[in-house]
Amino acid sequence: MDDDRCGEMHLLIQADVDGELTPSEAARAAEHVRTCPDCAALQTSMLHLSERLKQDVTKYQASPALRAALQARIAREQRPHVERTWSWRRLFGLFAIPSATFGGGFAIAAALALFMLVPRGALPDAIVAAHVRALQPGHLMDVVSTDQHTVKPWFDGRLPFAPPVKDLANIGFPLTGGRLDYIPGHTAATLIYNRRQHIIDLFTWPSGSEGDLPPSAGSRDGYNYLRWEQNGMSFWVVSDLDASELSAFVQEWRSR
Amino acid sequence: LFSRPKATSFDAIILPHLDAAYNLARWLVQDGAMADDVIQDAMVRAITYFSSFRGDNARAWLMRIVRNAAYTTLANRRQGAVLVESQTELDSDRALAVADPADDPEAALARCEDKALLTRALATLPIELRECLILREIEELSYKEIAHITNVPIGTVMSRLWRARRDLMAWSTEVPAHG
């Protein structure tokens, strides 16, 4: 079964054992197995292994204690208007960056983030609130630059991660600057883009997972937002721009 | 206060897959306490992301989250390569194994030893091979579901399964038969 032809057959025979073949493919596998003793032996030992794994391998189950802890946690999430679970890790995450470095405004923002205990489900609210807060005079930017190579290094040392910075000026979304934001549970790098007179905030922080999440959209208080996950980062983009233009921005960002 | 549609549906849709999720976590991190932590982390993520769940395959959706949480935990603790094996567990497996009535005592003992050895062989497979085999053979998921959970193309799932099986089949012929 080691010649080239049989090498190709191994995956086919395996897929047959796994019940993944269409009838015509299965017929092809069966025809080969009928005429090739080595592959017939392979099929037999694969079926045998499969049977032994199903029969003999320990199938672990969640302990009653774990199940109860999870049910309690879900019940906590059910209760509206009650403080949500704040793991110590999240709190440490906020303390990890001394808020004093960023001046009074951020200290207040950090304090609000700590003590308001915003419910988890309210992330869109928090993002839109951060956007609105930034629109107040003098709050928009910490680094003013249209050059991504100025904006990106500015975040170094201010954040425990390096946010991706992209300029989309050539399709009408010029980068105008960046700042730091505290979103409950996250320290975000925020990039500011312009579209005509509209301001677009792009918040980003590490997602904690490798998987990508396609964009999903929503709106709050007249602001449109889209969120997605890509290359280990969470992204939230907020603007008063109309939804289709904002989604064009996201599409362009994701494809670069 | 009385209508809790979202949380109730989380209970109803996600919790039935807790044992499958736990089994995956346990086989990935190979430690009971660490698996508990992984599941706790994964459930917090699942609750957070539940609004983005589009309701097609709750088990695969949850297991992808669990798998990511397990990898994060392993990376954080840098124990990816360390095999944590508890002897008491193997002993309790042995104690719990009920002999087939047709087996004579000697054959029953040999079977228990085989089982422990098979478990050990599976535990020593590289993690990306082990997870494919657990998902296919124990959880009986399709190639497509495994590809989604492990975030690789279906062709990669097939070649990983093949390598895992080839290793285990080679291993079982190397081990001397019980006499």
Question: Could you characterize what this model shows?
Answer:
The complex is a heterodimer of chains A (256) and B (179). Chain A has 256 residues and is an alpha+beta fold. Chain A has helices at 4-17, 23-35, 37-56, 64-78, 88-95, 103-116, 123-135, 148-155, 243-255, and strands spanning 143-144, 175-183, 186-195, 198-206, 213-220, 223-230, 233-239. Chain A has a seven-stranded antiparallel beta sheet, sandwiched between helices. In chain A, a hairpin with a 2-residue loop joins strand 3 (186-195) and strand 4 (198-206). Residues 81-89, 91-104 and 110-120 of chain A have low confidence and may be disordered. With 179 residues, chain B is an all-alpha fold. In chain B, 73% of the residues lie in helices and 0% in strands. Chain B has nine helices and no strands. In chain B, helix 3 crosses helix 4 (58-77). The longest helix of chain B is centred in the last third of the chain and has 21 residues, at 154-174. Chain B is globular, with a radius of gyration of 19 Å. The termini of chain B are far apart. At the A-B interface, helix 1, helix 3 and helix 4 of A face helix 1, helix 2, helix 3, helix 4 and helix 6 of B.
